[in-house]
Amino acid sequence: WPIHQILLIIRGQETDNVGVDWAVRLAQPSQANVTVLAVVPHMPATYDHVTRKQYGLAQWLATDTALGRQTRRIAQHLVNWDTRGTLRFRQGPAETQIQREVLEGNYDLIVIAADPSSWWSRRLSGELVTPLLRWVDQPVLVAKPTISQGRRR
User: Which of 106, 91, 116, 95 is nearest to 138 (CA)?
Assistant: First the structure.
């Protein structure tokens, strides 16, 4: 089963790094293409003003923001491992962004970092894994950092 197309879903969290590591590791043997879908985390309605300021497209692409630095790190990681990649952005709720990308793409594998373990973190950043697993037909790798990775970062 050679993997040709991998969808890597990132959401601007440090836990995305474990998903990036797995996507690159799995893309290497068959020289698969990795499409990185950068989604904006859903925030409760009371946080809408924060969402626009902290998680817009400009922040993903800016050089002086955490999201911009993460985007550059991921791109550099793909380049360092000689992995072909594409960075995609979509508009709308995070779950809708993912559904559109999966339905339009021809992915052999979807890689996503595990949702935050605490209820409060999931509430703030949105839960993506469980909704994805309810409807997706492709294999999904849910990457969870080990305890030592969590301490290191």
Answer: 106
Distance between CA atoms of residues 109 and 26, nearest Å: 9
Q: Give the tens place of pLDDT for each residue, 93-145.
A: 888 999 999 999 999 999 999 986 655 555 555 678 888 999 999 999 999 98
Instruction: State the pTM of this model.
Output: 0.80
User: CA torsion 46→47→52→56, rounded to 10°?
Assistant: -130
Q: How many H-runs (helices) and E-runs (strands) does the chain carry?
A: 8, 5
Token pair for 41: 């985390």
Partners of residue 111 on adjacent β-strands: 8, 141
Residue 47, number of CB atoms within 10 A of its CB: 14
Instruction: Of 33, 56, 14, 40, give the one whose Cα is nearest residue 106.
Output: 33
pLDDT-derived band at 153 (thresholds 50, 70, 90) equals very low
Are 109 and 3 in contact, with CB atoms under 8 Å apart? yes
3-class DSSP assignment, residue 89: strand
* Residue located via tokens 């996507």: 23
Round to whole Å and give the CA distance between 25 and 19: 10
